[in-house]
Amino acid sequence: MAALLVVGSAAWSQAAPPLVDDFFRAAAIDSARLSPSGRYLAIVIGAKGARARLAVLDLDQPGLAAKVIARFEDADVTDVRWVDDQRLLFGATDSDAPVDRRRPRGLMAVNRDGSELRALIKRKWTERISEGNTRIVSRLLEPDHYFHSIVNDGSGDVIVGQARWDNVGDVTSVVLRRLDTRTGAVRPLAKAPDSHTVDWVVDAEGEARAALSESAGRSRLYWRAPKDADWTLLLDEPAAFGTAIQPQWVDADTLYVTAPTGPAGTRALFRFDVAARRVVPEPLFSIDGFDYSGDREHDGGRTVGIHYTADAEGSHWFDAGLQAAQREVDALLPGTVNRLTCTRCSGSPRLLVRSHSDRQPAVFRIFDTKSRKLEMVGASRPWIDPKQMAEQDFVRVAARDGRSLPIYVTRPRGKSAQPRPAVVLVHGGPHVRGNSWGWNEEAQFLASRGYVVIEPEFRGGDGFGWAHLAAGFKQWGLAMQDDVTDATRWAIREAGVDPKRICIAGASYGGYATLMGLIREPELYRCGINWVGVTDPGLMFSINHSDLPEDWKRHGMRIMLGDPEKDKERFAQTSPIAQAARITQPLLMAYGAVDRRVPIEHGTRLRDAVTRHNRDVEWVVYADEGHGWGSPDNTRDFWTRVEKFLARHIGPSAAVADATAPAAR
């Protein structure tokens, strides 16, 4: 196996577990993409203390080093795509800036040799991006634009969307435009079917073919023939989350959608019969027990394969040659999930292979379709030694009412004759999927410090069918919390967890579940860690300066969470603030001062209520953070606090102090 690019192709050997920074620092290789011809590889390269850069490697010249073609002093390169074999598109984002729903990402284009660098979309409302001392001049689009798709007609054009906002900052519609990546010129693409169009499907030639509109709790799906100015309404149905049909892509004149199927309502991939205005009954692809949600590989306008997530990531190929390549790569790389990608797949001399496992962060290789051999590109985190990492399992257990409860369990390395301490890590959302099998920095960090990590996919989360999602409606702090408790009790029985040394932790909704766990199960959880967590469901409706859309508050939230007036009594029963006197265990709370998703009032109100009777509360505010940590310094500080807090309260079986970490402020 030859090495094409030495960006950490071998892991470091360490006697002690990795430091905090090793888990959370930027990847050495963040992502990679093959050019349409398969000759060139674009790589996003990171380095400790430096901004992510864009480099290009000529695969026909293996001895030639990768050339960095774009770097910025105040932005990281993200989301790289090939427009054609000559030109690339990428984002330029300040990853250290506060996490915000409306944070601009910017959009730029450059030739593969670094020439003709052009800014296309601003990443700040008042700023022009500069490279070094050279000002990049172009007709910049405002940050309300974003990349949508590539036009595969040889023009070098792309499609961008422009979000239209109302006076409270909610997206009411999206307009599509065609953008010339060399001149910055834009022109309209298609007239929207109605004033609430928020999602579009564009074909390979850049024609808008399907559109989805949402307003007042309803979802409308439209269809448009090529070059036709008129739209046809295909469906008008309640926007009932998991039940609505969702457009995916168009091949020629065939529309592909996802829709629920079977008693569990798991989403499958279907063709849509436009003439009959209905889904073709037989699914094109489905996964027992899981929703299909993924992306595709294509050859211009023909889909050749799809990627999906079941308990772990996987791929399904419609093309026999690519299916054979997948089998060969899997035989060469057993024990890892191996994702094959290509920009134009048919006849490509190479495929990009991204491999990972529960113990191995992503490694990038090239598969030569003629020699049938693999060549190493590099490791995303070469400083992580897989032999030091923990194994992760996926299990399904029965919740107290018999419903299937998926759980991810990460166990520390080695065997223990005694039960181990544990952290129950509750995902945010909450109506999203929490995890999939693979290397995860939070779980691996905690496991490296001696903790079993329990991650329940509680009801109300996505990815496991409509029935699983809907079972969580209006169940914050109730049945959703019961699932977390049931996962914890299962871990005590079956996963070697010490019942006297369990801490519950999570961010956003996970922070809320942490607080409710301490309230409802005081004998089960020894301590809690809540960061950027909701502390009162009613505040999600009443705080007007949050970034939650008003239409979502009026419709979706009232179905999923409840009505603050009609369900006032239940809201009080499931409010951590209202029941703060019951939180007597040690508690670590951390918030971002400029968080607009869960404004800091959630944290300060609970802090004030809890500290009246509980002296063991650690409180930290990061002045320049939003809904999560962007700054490496803040990330290091937070997880160092977590390590010390856990060691103090549940005593890991193999605590390791990070001597290089700064002291908590």
Question: What features would you describe in this structure?
Answer:
With 665 residues, the chain is α+β, with helices and mostly antiparallel strands. It is built from twelve helices and 38 strands. Strand 3 (40-47) and strand 4 (50-58) form a beta hairpin. The longest helix is centred in the last third of the chain and has 19 residues, at 632-650. The chain is globular.
User: Which parts are unreliable, with pLDDT below 50 for 5 consecutive residues or more?
Assistant: 9-13, 129-138, 653-665
Biggest sheet details = 8 strands, mixed
Q: What radius of gyration results from the CA coordinates? A: 25 Å
What percent of residues adopt helix (DSSP H or I)?
10-25%
Distance between the termini: 48 Å
Specify the structural class.
Answer: alpha+beta
Silhouette? globular
Number of helices: 12
Could you give the count of β-strands?
Answer: 38
| Order of neighbouring strands in the sheet with most strands | 31-32-34-33-35-36-37-38
- Name the average pLDDT: 89
Beta-strand proportion: 35-45%
Jot down its keywords.
single chain, 665 residues, alpha+beta, eight-stranded mixed β-sheet, five-stranded mixed β-sheet, 38 strands, disordered C terminus
